[in-house]
Amino acid sequence: MQIIKNDNFFMNLAINVARRNKGMTGANPSVGCVIVSRDKTIISIANTGIGGSPHAEKKALEGIEIKTGTVLYTTLEPCVHKGKNPPCVDEIINSGVKKVVIACLDKNPLVRGKGIKKLENSGIKVIKGILEKDAEDFYDEFFKRINSNIPGINIKIASSADGKTALKNGKSKWITNKLSRNYGHKLRLFNDGIMVGINTVLKDNPSLTCRLSGLNKFSPSRLVMDTNLRFPINCNLAKTAKNIETIIFTSKNSSVRKINLLKNKGIEIIKIPTTKSGLSLISALKFLGKREFNSILIEGGNKLIASAINSPQLNKVYWFSSEKIIGEEGKPSIGKLNITNLENSPNLFLHNMINLDNNYLKIYKAKN
Amino acid sequence: MQIIKNDNFFMNLAINVARRNKGMTGANPSVGCVIVSRDKTIISIANTGIGGSPHAEKKALEGIEIKTGTVLYTTLEPCVHKGKNPPCVDEIINSGVKKVVIACLDKNPLVRGKGIKKLENSGIKVIKGILEKDAEDFYDEFFKRINSNIPGINIKIASSADGKTALKNGKSKWITNKLSRNYGHKLRLFNDGIMVGINTVLKDNPSLTCRLSGLNKFSPSRLVMDTNLRFPINCNLAKTAKNIETIIFTSKNSSVRKINLLKNKGIEIIKIPTTKSGLSLISALKFLGKREFNSILIEGGNKLIASAINSPQLNKVYWFSSEKIIGEEGKPSIGKLNITNLENSPNLFLHNMINLDNNYLKIYKAKN
Q: What's the CATH class of domain A7-138?
C-alpha cells in the first residue's frame, strides 16, 4: 500500500501523538505537533509534556533547522496568551516556519481565532479544519470546561448482555473480561477525576486507581458523592488519600466530628447543596471546574449514572458488555429516569464500537 | 479481485442458494445444490422447492447433460430414504455424476453416512466437510428436531441500550429502528412457529405474521402459552386463525366453554402439564416436534424467554438493541433466572453481530 503523504496523513499522526499523553497533561490539553520538510520528510514530532509543559509546538521546534517549505501541523490552535508557558504563536513566528496547518480552533472564547490571526499577520499561511471533527472530539471535555467552567463528564458501565451490572446477591466478578477491565483502567488514565456514589464505596471498597503497569502515578483524583457522610474511615480510598487526591462531596448537615476524622486521613470534604434526588451533581461539577478538572469519569452507582446521563456536560458513555445473561433480578445499569415517552430518552448516538475479545465496548456520544 | 473457484467457493454459493428458501420448505430442510463442469463453469443451481419438493439435487440435475469431470456440490448429505420424494442418492447415481462434494452429514441417526456410503459403493468420489460448520449452523434447528423429536428454539429480543423492552407505562414504539423491525420479520419467515406468552397477546394484540412484502404467506404458525385461557376471543390472532395456524397451549383446568369458543374461531387448544413456573415449555415443544416443527421463535414476554434461555433446545438469541436508554423502571428483557453465581449464567457465545443502520443485532449461540 502506498502512503499518501497529504495533510490528513500528517494531522492524523499529530492527533495520535497527542493521544499518547492524554490524561497526563494536567489542566492543559494534550496537543500533538508534527513538522514536515518541503519533500514531505517528517523532521520533528512532539506532544504536550507530562503535567502540561512544555507545549507541543515549542518541543517540536527545538533544535531543528527550518528551511523553505517546512510545514508545522498542530492539533489545536496555538495559544497566544502567556500562562505557565510562553505563547506558542510567538515560538512559531520566531522559528521561521511559513505554513501552519491546524486541526481545530481553540473554543475558548478568549482565544478562538486570535492565534490564527496573529500567525497570519506575521505572514504565515494558515490552513485550518484538517481532521477537525476528530480533534474536536478529542478535546471535547476540555472545550466544555473552558467554555462553561464545568468539566465534561464521561460514564463507564460494565454489564451483562441484558444490561445488568451485578447479580441480585451483589456478585459482579467478573461480568466482563480482562481486556474490558484493562480498557476501563485506560479510561481512568484519560480522565482527571473518577466519581462514584457512596454505595459503590460501601459495597465494593474500591481503590479507583489506574492499574495499568507504569501508569499508576497518573491515577485520577477520586471523587465520592456521599450525602450523609457514611464514608468508612478505614476503606481503601481513605488508606491511600494521602497519596492520591480524594474529595468527598457531602451535604451541609454532615457531622463535624466525622469531617475532621476524614480530613486527618488527607481527604478533602466539600459541602454542596442537595436536590430532591440527592446531592447536586452540577454543584460538585462547578467546584471541580474551578479546580480546572477537564473531565470526570462516572463509574456508578446507577443512581449517579442516571443523573449524569441527562446532563448537558455529558460527553460519552463507555458501555462494556459481555455475553453473560443475568436476568430480571440483577442490578440495572442505570437508575430511574422517569421517562414517559421514548422521544425523551437521553439524546445519544453510537459513536464507535470496539471488539474486546468478544466483549463489546459501545461508545455513545451525547448529541449537542 | 480474482475469484478463486475452489470447493469453498462453490459450496458457499450452494449454502447461499439454500438460504433463499429457508422457512419455505415445510418440515424438510432447505438444501442448496450447484453443479459445475470440469472447466469450473456453473451449469446448474437449485434449492429445495417451496413446501419441501422437489429436492435440490433432483431439480439441479434436471435437463442438464453430465460430462466427464462434472462435480455436484450439495449442502447436506443426500437422502437415501423414500419419503415424499424419491431418494436423491439414486438420482445422483443415475445421472452419471462421478464426484460429489458435501458440506455436512445428515445428523439423523437413521440416515447419517448412509447416503455417502451408497454413493461411494456406486463408484462416486465423495468429499465431505467443505464449509461444514456453516452448514451445520444453518441446519441446527432441523438437526435438533430429527435427533430428539423436539424443535430447536430461537429467541428474539428488541431492547434499548440498557436492555429494556418497554417504558414503565408499556410504551415500546419504537425502541429499535425500521431496519431492525424488518429483520425481525425475516426471523418470523425463517422459523416454523412463533411463540409468545399470553401477556404479550393481552398487552400488544399482535398479529405475529411475517409482514415482508410477498412473504406473508410464509408466516409461521402462531403459538401462545396461556395457563388460564385468558386469550381474548376477538383479538387479532383469533380473527386470522382460520387462515394461519394458531395453537394455544393451556392447563388441564381451562374452561371447556372457552375452549369451544376458541375452537370455533379455528384455534387449536392443546392441554399440557404445568410446572411451578407455569406451563411446561418442554411439553409444548414435544407436541410441536411430533407435528414436525423444526424451529420455534420465541418473542416474549420476558418470563417465557427466561425459561427458554436455559433450554437444551436453544439455538440462537437474536438481540436487537438501539441507542435509546430507558432506565431502571423500564421492562427487563429477560425474567428472573435465580442465578447466584456468574458461572451459572446461560452458556452463550457471541456468534455474529450485524449493524442495522446503527441499531445492532447481536446473535448469541448456545454452547453445546
A: alpha beta
